[in-house]
Amino acid sequence: MPKLSDHYVQLTIFILLFLLVSVMGFLASRWRRPGTLNHLDEWGLGGRSFGPWVTWFLIGGDLYTAYTFVAVPALLYGAGAMGFFAVPYTIVVYPIVFLVLCRLWSVSHVHGFVTPADFVRSRFGSPTLALLIALTGIVATMPYIALQLVGIEAVLKSMGVTGHLPIIVAFAILALYTYSSGLRAPALIAFVKDALIYLVIIAAVIVIPVKLGGWHAIFGKAEAALSAVSPVTHKPRGSVLLTSSNQLQYVTLALGSALALFLYPHSITGVLAAKNRDTIKRNMAALPAYSFVLGLIALLGFMALAAGIKPIVTGGKADSNTVVPLLFDQQFPPWFAGVAFAAVGIGALVPAAIMSIAAANLFTRNIYKEYLKRDATPAQEAQASKIASLVVKLGAVACILFLDPQFSIDLQLIGGVIILQTLPAVALGLFTRWFHRGALITGLVAGLATGMVMLYQIPNPANGKAHFGGSGYALSNFGFSTTMTIYVGFVAVIVNLLVALIGTVVLRAGDIPDGEDGTQRPDYFADRDDPEVRDLPELVTEEPVS
Amino acid sequence: MSQEDTKAGAEQSDRSPWNWLLLIPIVLPLLTLLYNRRSPELLGFPFFYWCQLAFIPVGVATTVLVYQLTKRGR
User: Fold this and answer.
1) H/E/C letters for each residue in B10-71?
2) In this predicted model, what pLDDT tens digit does every residue of A195-217 receive, in sequence order?
3) What's the CATH code, domain A36-512?
4) Contacts of A286 in chain B (CB under 8 A)
């Protein structure tokens, strides 16, 4: 166990940088001077005014989270090549969503949509489908927020800081400035987060390989460590190349995760905050810069293997998320290790803030306004969202305090599978109105059920879990004589699509009434300067924005 | 519905044959058969790792190209 008395320098740097971003978070409410924050478009979408640069930092800070920084290398540390799926995943995602997000941006601006469920409600004329989409989004996002805390905790553990109090304090500060500044807070903090991350990673990929004898030696030592036979499973831990068993899993996990990424409510929040279609298109070309950094971060897992890092064991369980912080602590001088720890810690705050705002917006727009207070004014909507964002963060802290962190990790695994089930309604809905609302609901439910059953059936022999042991489903369960596995979300979304297809044909044949489409074709191509795009009409009439 | 289309003509669409180029960076990184090998190494990186990192500039270049080719005339 690392001792706190050896880590005063690291801890001081960490706290100083943390305080700096907290001050920025509070000051962010004055940034770009909104007329008022009492409107959901202002609090929850930063006034829909962010240009290419801010959007790049915001979405980058949003998608590449602290958990990613500790968990992806931990995956390579534990299993080898399989963990590198994060790279193809974050390459294919941008060309896939290039056209999709532009359409979503346009239709959302014409109609003032704040959440993906808003769009679905209008497109398919179904509040029920919208409610299901909103609930799926909230359920998928909550554990993701909790995992950001797991990321901070891994860093704190590596400095010998134990107990839950620091996490509670950190999240209380985060909750306060998110409450007062809304989406502007993470947008501003994202600049610091990304600057620190780039600095740390560039230093890491230059300094550490020199110390460890070069990349060739790193891969060689990692391979030796991975090929050691595990006493539990009697198989090697992993390999530096893919095997015949995990290639299909690698491809389907990369593709499935890519399809799911921009269905997450927090990703869509980042996109809708952009000021025009051009901003989105440019970002689709510029965001892969983060993928490159992620690829390098992933390789920290192999550096940790080569450096002989052993994860911190607490309560008899080895926490593999601690290998990257431990590597930094071993290889960097104390002050720079402090900077690296702060990069991870601040890296947790940005996505946690955006995720809680996104979940709060879903609650406000698709539950509160739909079912609890239909005549809510924009100011009441903003107030409901602010309070919901506090509740969401409380829930995340409670997850960490009262449940095994492993439970959050399991939930996040489930979250990726279930958010993918909103693909037919949200993503395909932007291109076609062919699906029947009843068929989409049936398909969504079928996809969710398939995903849950399959995940339940997956054991993990390495840590002795009987259920929810991973996302790779053995094809031998379907009767194929092979050791190959496939990503659960991928199978579930195919089931979902088939049910939606067949259901639509059946419901049309039975003349079951379908919902009204509240959108029109030109809405999907509108841009900022077009007359049909609303520019915060409620605000403009109250007080002109200069 | 379709009368609306005539209003602004071809501008009211995101259709373009150039969009098909986007398939390159979608399909290429998913073909593990292409890159699941050790050699040739580059700067000590096995092919598996540097090749996938090299797909990133391919993705960027394709996206930039499609963006430029499909810009609304202005």
Assistant:
1) HHCCCCCHHHHHHHHHHHHHHCHHHHCCCCCCECCECHHHHHHHHHHHHHHHHHHHHHHHCC
2) 898 899 889 988 999 999 889 99
3) 1.20.1730.10
4) 60
